[in-house]
């Protein structure tokens, strides 16, 4: 049965059942033999140590329970537990994990049998241990009275004296005034050291070398201790100069059994914070080691210590050791002891708390032996180049050092993790285990060098400097080691090549190439002349009125009935994509639009949207492509608009779910789009059909395009012969195409081939309009389009004179339209392809590079200083094409 716990008034009102439960727990302290198996254990902590305990619980087949603060709602320790519950709502980040009432309430509510405190936070608070016991929950650690005695550094000091263990001269009780510290300094001399009476980890600790500094440093230490531990009480002791910091790991059961698991060397410290820990302590004389281990056991037996704990000593240069404190909890550095002894300390803690004896755990002093050497490094998110200033943010890249002899204990160490400024900066503990100290150091150095952590700064450069010092490798270090080696703070800047490459690729993807422009031309200071349009004049009727009134099928019939060959003007899309890197602004398109509406109502369509323009509008011009479409539609209500749709890719570069394609087409029609030229760069019909169906359902005209490649007039090239195109066209007509299109993006459709292809399509499909697009890369485009018209094509693509040449066709009858673009083109001089392409080039029939690819590839070659080798680039393109099986020639950017 579970009862609500906590609060002295509430506890007094608890039923006798709870008292009986408490007696069962206290029987462990009375050395009875009754045991209790835990089913569910809560860890009152966060981060790495919480996960460490969860793993031990899982191996013991017990349910693990996490608690987490609001700031930790996405933390890894919450996800690693079997159950997790929010505590400290509305409290500051640290205060949440100090909320004893809420933690106990959560434990009782969810039938928790025991609580493990980890280290830090409440791990050395005897009132927390007592609250657990009062609530009938087992506290995995020492009993409250032992914890109270050992957690109070002054009381622990007195216990050591009673046990006959030598202590450092110091105060016999906590002090709360600077004057008391001054009096001690006068009596024993300086240096002295102030330590927090109710906590550790270097907080509230100050070394004082001059009596005149006592008052100021006492005030700082008192304030820091009160902030960290809720009580600013300090004790003061004589400072032992040049000591080694040695600590002994203990395990005690509730039946009087006590063993040590040898010692650790924690002398590598910075500002009293441990940085590197070693087990066993290297180069420690055997006689000194035996005395320290014996004194640790003597003190533990004197106080009746249970569970895991650590007795800490200072060893001076003469080999004398002095007791300094007891950590009545699990230590951060417990890992190195586990590595050299093979004992799982956390599982031992849990079993002991259940009432098991050391004998039950097969642990005796005779059987506990050391195997090799282990080193632990605390990798923290601190910048050693800036006085170890804590860093926070998102880890962009994380690659750990692993391999034989390496153990990693972590919680937030993964790509995408958010490092919060609210908690301790420990990121991952790296533990190396080898046959001896130098070998362990070598493994650790190798592992740390393998780490790649980007997005936040870490202390890895500092750790590497420490580990490579000869004095460290010789194991002759004391607590002065870091202070006396300024070279430890000299760092070689990380080259960070991978991250720089990713940043560069991202920059290019978003903002375009950062290589120097081929041309040094600047945008001209011109104001393009806009042909006059009579104000208020109504645009003449165009084909769009047929589409709006009668629908796509009637529109297609009207096109087919129109005598002669109609024209699609590509000036507003494909022309400036090929000639000016798609950089033309909506502003310039809109200025000429009223004139186009008045002067060219007979056009089949204006190609002005889709393809690469959609992407470039957003990324480079920072314009909304939807607003562009709506703006142009309002200015040109009479001429059909045409866009390029990449089938299932829409206007992107990867496949999208079908519902996105359908919604895109629906919005496009509502915004003013009429004709959807649907193509696939590999002529893959299923991809084409997705786009065709989406365009048709939206009410648009479906123009199914076949990407042309090969040469149907060359009978030796059998892969893309005439039958290939006829079969493909038949599939597209059956799929619902209103118009068939041939899209020759490479400009390889020769006049003779054009006559054969279009003539055969017209013969097989007499009722469906045929639309032809080519690039005039070779200079034969006009002749090819003439042959298409003679063979029965209904529409061909063209661009105005001043926006044509090499990639589009010329029109010589619209001089005022051409004059506008001739002037406007000068605004985009830095992106001008004509600097490198002076004329057409018939070698396109060999390399078959699509126009959009050709201009971009040439621009890149010149930008990289490879302009003279562009002929070689084209040859390699041809070889790659043939090696890949002669792929369809289509520009993905179109």
Automatic annotation (TrEMBL):
GO cellular component terms, A-Z? cytoplasm
Q: Can you supply a Gene Ontology BP term from the record? A: gluconeogenesis
Has keyword NAD?
A: no
Q: Which Pfam families match?
A: Biotin_carb_C (PF02785), Biotin_carb_N (PF00289), CPSase_L_D2 (PF02786), HMGL-like (PF00682), PYC_OADA (PF02436)
Is Ligase tagged as a keyword? yes
- Domain named Pyruvate carboxyltransferase: residues: 565-841
Start and end residues of each ATP-grasp domain: 157-354
Q: Name what cofactor the protein needs.
A: biotin
Segment forming the signal sequence: none
> Keywords on this record?
ATP-binding, Biotin, Ligase, Nucleotide-binding
Q: Which GO terms describe its molecular function?
A: ATP binding; metal ion binding; pyruvate carboxylase activity
Question: What CDD domains does the record point to?
Answer: DRE_TIM_PC_TC_5S
Q: Where is the Biotin carboxylation domain?
A: 37-487
Gene3D superfamilies referenced in this protein's UniProt entry, alphabetically: Aldolase class I, ATP-grasp fold, B domain
In its UniProt entry, what is this protein called?
A: Pyruvate carboxylase
* Organism annotation: Diploscapter pachys
Q: Which lineage do the record's taxonomy fields give for this organism?
A: Eukaryota, Metazoa, Ecdysozoa, Nematoda, Chromadorea
């Amino acid at each position: 049965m579970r009862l609500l716990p906590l609060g002295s008034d509430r506890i007094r009102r608890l039923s006798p059942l709870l008292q009986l439960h408490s007696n069962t727990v206290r029987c462990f302290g009375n050395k009875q033999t009754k045991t209790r198996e835990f089913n569910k254990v809560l860890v009152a902590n966060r981060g790495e140590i919480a996960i460490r305990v969860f793993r031990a619980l899982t191996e013991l087949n017990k349910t693990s329970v996490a608690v987490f603060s609001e700031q930790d709602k996405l933390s890894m320790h919450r996800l690693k537990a079997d159950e997790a519950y929010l505590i400290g709502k509305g409290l500051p980040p640290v205060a949440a994990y100090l909320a004893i009432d809420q933690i106990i309430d959560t434990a009782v509510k969810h039938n928790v049998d025991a609580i493990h405190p980890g280290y830090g936070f409440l791990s050395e608070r005897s009132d927390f241990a007592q609250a657990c016991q009062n609530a009938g929950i087992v506290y995995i650690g020492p009993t409250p009275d032992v914890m109270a005695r050992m957690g109070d550094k002054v009381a622990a000091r007195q216990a050591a004296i009673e046990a006959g263990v030598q202590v450092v001269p110091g105060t016999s009780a906590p002090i709360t005034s600077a004057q008391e510290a001054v009096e001690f300094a006068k009596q024993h001399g300086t240096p002295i050291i102030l330590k927090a009476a109710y906590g550790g980890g270097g907080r509230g600790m100050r070394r004082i070398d001059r009596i005149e500094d006592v008052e100021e440093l006492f005030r700082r230490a008192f304030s820091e201790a009160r902030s960290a531990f809720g009580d600013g009480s300090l004790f003061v002791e004589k400072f032992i100069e040049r000591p080694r910091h040695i600590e002994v790991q203990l395990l005690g059961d509730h039946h009087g059994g006590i063993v040590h698991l040898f010692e650790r060397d924690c002398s590598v410290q910075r500002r009293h914070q441990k940085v590197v820990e070693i087990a066993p302590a290297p180069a420690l004389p055997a006689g000194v080691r035996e005395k320290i281990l014996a004194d640790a056991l003597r003190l533990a037996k004197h106080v009746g210590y249970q569970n895991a704990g650590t007795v800490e000593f200072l060893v001076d240069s003469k080999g004398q050791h002095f007791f300094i404190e007891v950590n009545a909890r699990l230590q951060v550095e417990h890992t190195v002891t586990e590595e050299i002894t093979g004992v799982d300390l956390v599982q031992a803690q849990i079993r002991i708390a259940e009432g098991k004896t050391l004998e039950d755990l097969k642990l005796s002093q005779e059987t506990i032996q050391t195997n090799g050497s282990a080193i632990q490094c605390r990798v923290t998110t601190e910048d050693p180049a800036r006085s170890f200033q804590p860093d926070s943010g998102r880890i962009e890249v994380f690659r750990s050092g692993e391999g034989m002899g390496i153990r990693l204990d972590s919680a937030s160490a993964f790509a995408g993790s958010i490092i919060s400024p609210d908690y301790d900066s420990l990121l991952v503990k790296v533990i190396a285990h080898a046959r001896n100290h130098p070998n362990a150091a070598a493994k650790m150095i190798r592992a740390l060098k393998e780490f790649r952590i980007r997005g936040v700064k870490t202390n890895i450069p500092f750790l590497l400097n420490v580990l490579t010092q000869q004095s460290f490798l010789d194991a002759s270090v004391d607590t002065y080691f870091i202070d006396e080696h300024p070279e430890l703070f000299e760092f070689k800047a990380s080259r960070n090549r991978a991250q720089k490459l990713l940043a560069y690729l991202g920059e290019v993807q978003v903002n375009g190439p950062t290589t120097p422009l081929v041309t040094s031309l600047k945008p001209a200071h011109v104001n393009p002349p806009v042909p006059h349009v009579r104000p208020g004049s109504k645009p003449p009727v165009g084909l769009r009125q047929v589409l709006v009134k009668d629908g796509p099928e009637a529109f297609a019939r009207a096109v087919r009935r129109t005598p002669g060959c109609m024209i699609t003007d590509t000036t507003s899309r494909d022309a400036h994509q090929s000639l000016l890197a798609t950089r033309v602004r909506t502003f310039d398109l809109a200025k000429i639009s009223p004139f186009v509406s008045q002067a060219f109502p007979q056009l089949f369509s204006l190609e002005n949207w889709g393809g690469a323009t959609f992407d470039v509008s957003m990324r480079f011009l920072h314009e909304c492509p939807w607003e562009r479409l709506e703006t142009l539609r309002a200015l040109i209500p009479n001429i059909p608009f045409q866009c390029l749709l990449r089938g299932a890719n829409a206007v992107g570069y990867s496949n999208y779910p079908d519902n996105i394609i359908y919604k895109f087409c629906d919005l496009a029609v509502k915004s003013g789009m009429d004709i959807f030229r649907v193509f696939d760069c590999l002529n893959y019909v299923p991809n084409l059909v997705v786009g065709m169906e989406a365009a048709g359902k939206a009410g648009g005209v479906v123009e199914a395009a076949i990407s042309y490649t090969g040469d149907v007039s060359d009978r030796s090239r059998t892969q893309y012969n005439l039958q290939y195109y006829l079969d493909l066209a038949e599939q597209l007509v059956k799929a619902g195409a209103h118009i068939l299109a041939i899209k020759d993006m490479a400009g390889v459709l020769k006049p003779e081939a054009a006559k054969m292809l279009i003539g055969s399509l017209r013969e097989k499909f007499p009722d469906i309009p045929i639309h032809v697009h080519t690039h005039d890369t070779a200079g034969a485009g006009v002749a090819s389009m003439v042959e298409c018209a003679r063979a029965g094509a209904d529409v061909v693509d063209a661009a105005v004179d001043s926006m044509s040449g090499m990639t589009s066709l010329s029109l010589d009858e619209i001089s005022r339209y051409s004059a506008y673009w001739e002037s406007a083109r000068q605004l985009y001089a830095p992106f001008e392809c004509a600097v490198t392409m002076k004329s057409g080039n018939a070698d396109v029939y060999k390399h078959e590079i699509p126009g959009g690819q050709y201009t971009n590839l040439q621009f890149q070659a010149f930008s990289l200083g490879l302009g003279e080798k562009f002929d070689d680039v084209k040859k390699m393109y041809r070889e790659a094409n043939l090696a890949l099986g002669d792929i369809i020639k289509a520009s993905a950017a179109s």
